[in-house]
Specification:
This protein is mostly beta strands. It has no helices and 44 strands. A 4-stranded antiparallel beta sheet has the order 17-18-19-20, with no helix packed on it. Strands 21-22-23-24 form a 4-stranded antiparallel beta sheet, with no helix packed on it. Strand 2 and strand 3 form a beta hairpin.
């Protein structure tokens, strides 16, 4: 917290102390010496247009209105500089700012009250404040408030032409197209002058298999191949990634179901694996596995994909279509029979869907306004509507209006809010909801309940009985640990109803979860832990590992 106190530096000279930096107040004739630890002494030590104030390079300001959301203008004798200020109460903040989500920020009622690149967000106490969306995760430009755009690393970023267009110490990646502001030394958009680019761009786990794309033209799947879900014939499974029988490869999205896989390519939408309920969208159902990829009937393009136990959904230009099993209403069309072997439209959505998730026998859509609608099997409360009956059409999740990402588990669902906070609902066996409550005290939550101790998540995934998220502390998991899927040695730690970091894992930018394992996207590869059956992550067949194991990609 930024504390403010008084200190006398000489007769008639009154100064204030801000944090660990001592500075002269307007009535003080001498500027006090900067404490050790200041990052600068001269403006020339800061990248233009930043200036040296209070011993740190920062954005120059005259008032807090000049600063991004979450930063306050702290002044000495002249112009000030924008600093982040944490808080507990609004009284901890300078006049004109409020304490929201533990940061001093601008008061707001709606997004237009906030500085560019920020949104008006309500915290758990009902206080509204401006939340800076730069660096937050995104899937498309519409996920970011103007003037931010969704860069290639799926983060909202400022556009720029030179370093002078960037703020808070960031620099302009002039090798990117379009140019965006990045932290010095990083290269999220593939520029030539900032360092190595993130290689693994797509990562999705099914029940007992995983598919990942290291580039649009390099897709690999590994794990069980009992139903042909790896996209090749003649093997029961693979401990290392193998390429499905697709040529040429140009993958833009992946969905992994329980025992099948679908990918979006520029040439069309293709699926393979188990087709018992017509979930491959080929116009027929078959007891014979379909290992060779084939195009989905009547649907060539999608903006988002989701796959459950035996059904698939695709979002295209704001229209959501599903196909496959419909025994619990998971296709969202009350007039449909079971199964549907070709795509049919979901009926009754309120608002424009921007993303879709599915698992087991239920489906949820993220709506453009931040609300969520779910349908299908609701016997564990996984629809989030306050009751447990199944629904064959969309119903709105109770009390959620600022969701930006969804994750569907086998019998539970989680959402990431704009603030980075997480909420989950549905079955809570093994503590998979992360609320800090264990059964029988809390067997299930019929509406969204806050996940304990997570306020800055950037990615989330839900497995069969566990959940993982990427936070500032790394990858954190909770729930069932019988197969080490939350990154703990079962001999030393059982199930957990509270999130805790996975040890031995490098900096992760994404996470995915299967039935009893988890994988994280780390730099140019993937690391997995849990039930490695068969050989997920490169480990021996059937051997669980609580320590992350790096996936070994074949050399070309």
């Amino acid at each position: 917290m930024l504390g403010v106190g008084r200190i006398a530096v000489g007769p008639g000279r009154l100064c204030v102390v801000i944090g660990v930096v001592v500075l002269a107040y307007a009535g003080c004739g001498e500027r006090a010496a900067l404490e050790i630890g200041g990052s600068c002494e001269l403006n020339s030590e800061c990248d233009s247009p930043l200036v040296c104030r209070l011993g740190q390079c920062g954005q120059e300001c005259r008032s807090s209105r000049d600063c991004p959301a979450g930063l306050g203008c702290v002044r000495d004798n002249g112009l000030g500089v924008c600093f982040a200020q944490s808080c507990v109460l609004t009284s901890d903040c300078p006049d004109g700012l409020t304490c929201s989500n533990q940061q001093c920020t601008n008061v707001c009622e709606r997004d237009r009250d906030c500085p560019p690149g920020a949104r008006c967000v309500e915290d758990q106490d009902g206080t509204k404040g401006c939340f800076d969306m730069s660096e937050s995760s995104c899937a498309r430009n519409s996920d970011c408030p103007s003037p931010l755009i969704c860069a290639r690393d799926k983060r909202c970023r400022d556009q720029c032409q030179t370093d002078r267009d960037c703020r808070d110490g960031r620099v302009c990646d002039t090798g990117a197209s379009p140019r965006v502001c990045v932290e010095p030394g990083s290269n999220p958009d593939g520029g030539v002058n900032q360092g190595p680019v993130q290689s693994v761009s797509l990562l999705r786990a099914g029940g007992i298999h995983v598919c990942a794309g290291r580039s649009a033209s390099e897709l690999g799947c590994w794990g069980s191949n009992g139903s042909g879900q790896l996209g090749v014939e003649g093997t029961g499974g693979s401990a290392t990634p193998i390429a499905p029988n697709l040529s040429p490869l140009d993958v833009t999205n992946i969905a992994a179901g329980t025992q099948f896989t679908c990918v979006q390519m520029t040439s069309g939408l293709f699926c393979w694996g188990d087709n018992n309920s017509g979930q491959l969208g080929r116009g027929f159902a078959s007891m014979v596995d379909q290992a060779n990829p084939s195009a989905v009937v009547g649907l060539a393009r999608s903006d988002a994909l989701a796959a459950g136990r035996a059904h698939t959904c695709a979002l295209t230009d704001g229209t959501l279509r599903c196909w496959g099993a419909n025994n619990r209403g998971q296709l969202g069309n009350s007039s449909a029979s079971d199964p549907q072997t070709a795509p049919i439209e979901v009926v009754g959505l309120s608002g424009t869907p921007v993303d879709v998730v599915a698992r087991a026998d239920h489906t949820c859509a993220l709506i453009e306004d931040g609300t969520v609608q779910c349908w299908g099997n609701g016997e564990d409360g996984q629809l989030g509507i306050g009751t447990k009956p199944s629904q064959n059409g969309p119903e709105t999740v109770v009390g959620l209006s600022d969701a930006v990402e969804l994750a569907a588990g086998t019998r539970h669902v989680c959402a990431r809010r704009q603030t980075g906070q997480l909420v989950c609902w549905g079955n809570n066996d093994n503590g998979r909801l992360g609320t800090g409550m264990r059964p029988p005290a809390s067997d299930e939550e019929l509406t969204p309940a806050p996940v304990s101790n997570i306020v800055d998540a950037t990615d989330i995934s839900a497995g069969a009985r566990h959940t993982c998220a990427v936070t500032s502390r790394g990858v954190e998991c909770w729930g069932d640990n019988a197969q080490s899927q939350i990154g703990k040695d079962p001999g030393m730690a059982g199930d957990s109803e509270l999130p805790s970091p996975v040890t031995g894992l490098g900096g992760a930018s994404g996470v995915t979860t299967g039935d009893a394992f988890s994988c994280a996207r780390v730099s140019d590869t993937v690391q997995c832990w849990g039930s490695l059956s068969p050989g997920l992550g490169g480990g021996p067949r059937g051997t669980p590992s609580h320590m992350p194991i790096t996936v070994v990609w074949p050399t070309s």
